[in-house]
Amino acid sequence: MISLTSRPSRWIVAGYVPAVVLLWMGVSQVASLAGEVPVYGPTASEDAVWTWGRILGWTGAIALIAWGVLVAAFWRRSGYTRGAVILVIMVGFFLAIVGKLVVWMVTLPPLLES
Predict the structure, then answer these.
(1) 51-89: per-residue pLDDT in tens?
(2) CB pairs under 8 A, 24+ apart, for 13-16?
(3) I need a labelling partner for 63 at 20 to 30 A (CA). Which of 11, 15, 22, 45 fits?
């Protein structure tokens, strides 16, 4: 069984959490702009939010992939079996994707009724 208080687990969690937070922050920025685009185009602040959201999202996604590669590369030093490390990586990616979808749905602006 994998314990979250052991030293290798702390390093695994310490690498995972910032990557997921960056990913979710980017998703929330981009999702907050979803909706009808005005005829006159986006404002400068909307462009800035879009740009920062994309930068944060891609940075988080790349960091998450790097986290998975590093966990896989150092699995022998962690003391876990290969199966446990594969399970940790799969669950990590699954939670990141499900969390991304939840953050997207929560931060979407309500649809205007006309």
Answers:
(1) 999 999 999 999 999 999 998 888 888 788 888 889 989
(2) 15/67, 15/70, 15/71, 16/64, 16/67, 16/92
(3) 45
Helix axis angle, 44-73 to 82-107, nearest 10°: 170
Look up residue 110 and give its DSSP letter: P
CA dist 86 to 72, 75, 78, 82, Å? 7, 9, 12, 6
pTM value surpassing 0.85: no
DSSP string, 49-92: HHHHHHHHHHHHHHHHHHHHHHHHHTHHHHT--HHHHHHHHHHH
User: Residue 86 has which token pair?
Assistant: 């594969």
